[in-house]
Specification:
The chain is an alpha/beta fold. It has two domains: 9-276, Spore Coat Polysaccharide Biosynthesis Protein SpsA, Chain A (Alpha-Beta Complex); 290-412, no CATH class. Helix content is 54%, strand content 11%. It contains 16 helices and eight strands. Strands 3-2-1-4-6-5-7-8 form an eight-stranded mixed beta sheet, sandwiched between helices. α3 (69-75) links the parallel β2 and β3. α2 (36-50) crosses α5 and α13 (335-351) packs parallel to α16. The protein is globular.
Length: 413
Amino acid sequence: MRYDTGLRAYTSKRVEEIEHADILVGIPCYNNELTINHVIQMVSHSLFRHYNDLRSVIMIADGGSTDDTREVAKEFQIKPWQEKVVSIYRGPAGKGSAFRSMFEAAKRLKVKACVVVDSDLRSITSDWVKYLLDPILEKGYQFVSPVYSRYKYDATITNNIVYNLTRALYGLRIRQPIGGDFAFAGELAAYYIEQDVWETDVARYGIDVWMTTNAITNNFKICQSNLGVKIHDAKDPAESLGPMFRQVVHTLFVLMEQNEAVWKAVKGSRTVPMFGLQEFLEPEPIQVDLGRLVTEYKTGFRQFKGLYRDIFCPDCFIQLKECAAKAKTKFGMPNNIWVMVLYETAATFHRWTYNRTQLVNLVTPLYLGRVASFINQTRQMTSSQAEELVEEQAQVFEDQKDYLIQLWDKKES
């Protein structure tokens, strides 16, 4: 079924009644009854404290929660002169469809700025909305990406894949391209809503990196804002990040194909203006199961060894084979091998017109091995010290970009 709008009739009528607003804050949610109250409270407080002279709308875009998320959201009393819309979006299940409904509302309300914050945040403060909105309302930026102080074993997909590829491909050091909490100028929200992606997999997953990449490749004015510590429903990489890895990597590779002419012309990278907090705060630790990560790697290597031999160059395959023989606490995958793995996988994805999902599945155990390697490497480090290693790895991705282009063009012939 094709949806020509992300808004249900009652939501559309509610937006029509509001007519116009300066700010829209969207909160996409699904089964978040335990945290939604706190998020709405912080948003409402911030709007009242910092933007009381502007007309604000708080929009909860729900994915059909089976708990009491919507009821909790409806009952929460926001500050005076603010509007609240609690809706169930239309379209394929996923965060992207929630964004579609919020962008649509933002466009119809002709807002100056739109902010989106995750619904499972435990660390959000009333300053978050200000840090995200001020660069748009006061400095003329059009896209604000978040920066967080995160524990060294949180955000492993960002640290090992998304930051590296975004920086190397498109030349901007956007630290959290899939951060979850963003701000957009009204014209950027209107641009997004016109793109023909809302019936695709982007609507189910990959929306964050799609928005970031489109903001870069269409030359919107971009900055970052440091929001401080991010505490949310954190996940052990060994437990649940396999599906997210597959979804994000698939989206990244599709975007590489769509923007080939752009990224091939980019050399080096540059920093992106930063606002918000000035200091790095040490976040609370999260527990990870190192043994499970290494076991997943070894099992995957044993199962897919023949395919790895076909996909990867001989040097890369030999190194991966050596990794599979290492003990848990000695497990390590060098930066240059991980870069080769991702670049060679991207080139293979480009060459294959079918079995692409299976290809990304094949690489999942290698990603889990890379996370295990990072854990061993940073065991005695603070999160701030571990961040230096993330930057070193990103530089290797940048330095090896010619290798990617060589592989990419070779696969085309």
